[in-house]
Write a structure and sequence with these properties.
heterodimer; A: alpha/beta; Rossmann fold; Arc Repressor Mutant, subunit A; 2 domains; 6-stranded parallel sheet; about 15% strand; globular; B: alpha+beta; 5-stranded mixed sheet; about 65% helix
C-alpha cells in the first residue's frame, strides 16, 4: 500500500513550504520533488520534477493556483491536484472541483489530514475532507435534479448508478466488485463508462456529479 | 381748438402707450434675466452636485480599496502563516520523543492558533468577502446571510429574478454594503422574524426590494443613525434611488434601484 509518492508544493510563503516539506519528508514513502513560489514556477518545473501529487495554494502572485490548475488540466488529467487554501466558502470549493482538482484542503487542517488526503488522491483519485463535503452537499445539491432523472438525462442504467453510489461511499474497485459479485475488471469498465456519461474529468468530478443529483446525502 | 384738443389726446395716448411698452420691456427683461439667472444657478448646482458625487465616490472607493488590501493581507498573509505555524506545532505534538506536559502545552498552543485563524477569517470576511470579487453579488449575499439565519426565530429569504449578471465592482460592493446595513438595522432595532430580499436583474438596472416584518423604521428615521446615512451616500454615489415603504404597512421596507453598467469580469 505504501507506494512511493512524488509531491510538488506550490505556495508563495517560503516558511509554509519548508514546514510542509519537512513534515512530508519524514514519511519514508513521500518525497517532495518540487517547490514553487507561484503557479508559473510550478508549471515550469513540472516536466523535470514529474510529481504524482501537487499541493496547490490558490492565492499566489504571477500565476494563481486557479490559473495553474486550469493550465495543467488542459494537457494532463492524471496528475493529482490537491488544493490547499485559506478559502473555505462553497463557491471556491465547487469551482475548483469543477475545474478538475482531486481534493480540497483547508490550510488550517491537521497534518494527519494532509497525509491522508495525499494518500487518498494517489490511490483513489479524490479526497473530500469532512468539512468540505458537508459544505459541498449544502451548497450544490440542486433540489430540481433528482436521482431518478439521472437515469434518463445521462443514460445511466441502474447498475451504473449502484456503482456510482459505492464509489461515493469511498469503496475501492475491489470492494465494489465484492459487493456486487463482479470482477474488478468489470468495475473498472463501469468507472470508465460513468466518466464518459457524466462528462467528469476524474473520480472527484464523478462524486461531485452524484452530489449535485442528490444521489448521496449529507 | 378741436385739433389742439385731439393733439393733446394723441400725445397723451402715445405717451401712455410708450410707457406701457417700456414697462412691458422692463418686465420682459427682468423675466429673461431671472430665468437666465436661475438656469445658471441650476447649472452651478448641478456642477456642484456632480462634484460632490465624485468626491463621495472617490472617498468610498479609497475606503474600499484599503479594506480590500487589509482583508487580503489578513486572509492570505497572516491567516496562511498562522495555519503554517499550526501545522508545524501539531506535527510536533505527534512526535514520540516529547513528554506529556510538552504535548499538552503544544495542544493548547494549537488551540489558541486555531482561534486566531478563525478570528482572522471573520475579520477579513467582514472587511470584504473574497467571494464578491471572484463570484459576484449573489454568492456574496448568500454567504453574508448564511451566518445570520436562526430559524424559526429569524429567517432571511433571498430571491433572485433575472439572469444574475456581473456588473461594476463599485455597484456590486455598494449594494452588498447597503444590504448589510439594512440587515443590521433589522436585527438591532426591529424585532423582525423574517426578512425578504428580492434582487431583480432587469435590462438596464438592478432593483433590490427589502422588507422585514418588524416594528417599522420610525426609530431609524427619527434619529437617522450612521447606518441610514451610509445607505444614502452609497446609493447617491451609484446614482441610484432609494424609497422607503409606506409606514402604515407593518414592517420596514425599502426599494432600491441602481443603473447598471455591466462589466465583464
Amino acid at each position: 500500500m505504501n507506494a512511493h509518492i512524488r509531491i510538488a508544493l506550490a505556495d508563495d510563503h517560503r516558511l509554509i513550504r519548508s514546514g510542509m516539506k519537512s513534515i512530508l519528508n519524514s514519511y519514508p514513502h513521500f518525497e517532495v520533488v518540487q517547490e514553487a513560489a507561484n503557479g508559473q514556477e510550478l508549471l515550469d518545473g513540472l516536466e523535470s520534477s514529474r510529481p504524482d501529487v501537487i499541493l496547490l495554494d490558490l492565492e499566489m502572485p504571477v500565476l494563481t493556483g486557479k490559473e495553474a490548475l486550469e493550465t495543467i488540466r488542459k494537457g494532463n488529467q492524471l496528475i493529482k491536484i490537491l488544493i490547499l487554501t485559506m478559502h473555505q466558502s462553497n463557491a471556491f470549493i465547487v469551482q475548483m472541483m469543477e475545474l478538475g482538482a482531486n481534493g480540497y484542503l483547508l490550510k488550517d487542517c491537521d497534518p494527519d489530514e494532509v497525509i491522508r488526503a495525499i494518500e487518498k488522491v494517489y490511490h483513489q483519485d479524490y479526497y473530500f475532507s469532512e468539512k468540505v463535503s458537508r459544505a459541498m452537499l449544502g451548497g450544490i445539491t440542486d433540489p430540481g435534479l433528482k436521482a431518478t432523472s439521472l437515469l434518463k438525462s445521462h443514460g445511466l442504467n441502474e447498475r451504473e448508478v449502484e456503482v456510482l453510489r459505492l464509489i461515493c461511499e469511498e469503496k475501492t474497485t475491489l470492494e465494489i466488485g465484492e459487493t456486487l459479485f463482479l470482477s474488478p475488471k468489470t468495475i473498472e469498465g463501469y468507472r470508465k463508462t460513468l466518466l464518459e456519461k457524466t462528462d467528469a474529468r476524474n473520480m472527484a468530478g464523478l462524486v461531485l456529479f452524484a452530489v449535485k443529483y442528490g444521489l448521496v446525502e449529507a | 381748438m378741436g385739433t389742439q384738443e385731439s393733439d393733446i389726446i394723441l400725445i397723451f395716448i402715445s405717451s401712455a402707450l410708450i410707457t406701457v411698452i417700456l414697462a412691458a420691456l422692463v418686465v420682459v427683461f427682468v423675466v429673461v434675466y431671472q430665468k437666465k439667472n436661475v438656469a445658471q444657478k441650476l447649472q452651478l448646482q448641478e456642477l456642484e452636485n456632480s462634484r460632490q458625487r465624485q468626491m463621495l465616490q472617490a472617498t468610498i472607493e479609497g475606503q474600499e480599496r484599503e479594506r480590500k488590501r487589509l482583508a487580503k493581507e489578513l486572509h492570505d498573509g497572516i491567516g496562511s502563516l498562522l495555519s503554517g505555524l499550526k501545522l508545524n506545532l501539531s506535527y510536533q505534538q505527534g512526535n514520540a520523543g516529547i513528554s506529556k506536559d510538552q504535548a499538552s502545552f503544544l495542544a493548547e498552543a494549537c488551540e489558541m492558533i486555531q482561534e486566531s485563524i478563525t478570528a482572522v477569517r471573520t475579520a477579513s470576511h467582514n472587511l470584504l468577502p473574497a467571494t464578491l470579487e471572484s463570484f459576484g453579488l449573489v454568492q456574496a449575499l448568500q454567504e453574508c446571510i448564511e451566518p445570520l439565519q436562526k430559524p424559526p426565530s429569524f429567517f432571511i429569504h433571498l430571491s433572485i429574478t433575472g439572469e444574475p449578471l456581473r456588473f461594476s465592482s463599485e455597484a456590486e460592493l455598494g449594494l452588498l454594503r447597503v444590504v448589510q446595513e439594512l440587515l443590521q438595522n433589522t436585527i438591532r432595532h426591529s424585532g423582525a422574524t423574517r426578512v425578504n430580499i428580492d434582487l431583480r436583474f432587469v435590462s438596464e438596472h438592478i432593483r433590490l426590494l427589502y422588507a422585514d416584518n418588524g416594528s417599522g423604521f420610525s426609530l431609524a428615521m427619527n434619529q437617522p443613525g450612521l447606518g441610514i446615512k451610509n445607505i444614502y451616500s452609497r446609493i447617491e454615489a451609484l446614482q441610484g434611488e432609494i424609497e422607503f415603504g409606506n409606514q402604515s404597512v407593518q414592517g420596514f421596507s425599502a426599494s432600491i434601484q441602481i443603473p447598471l453598467t455591466i462589466s465583464t469580469p
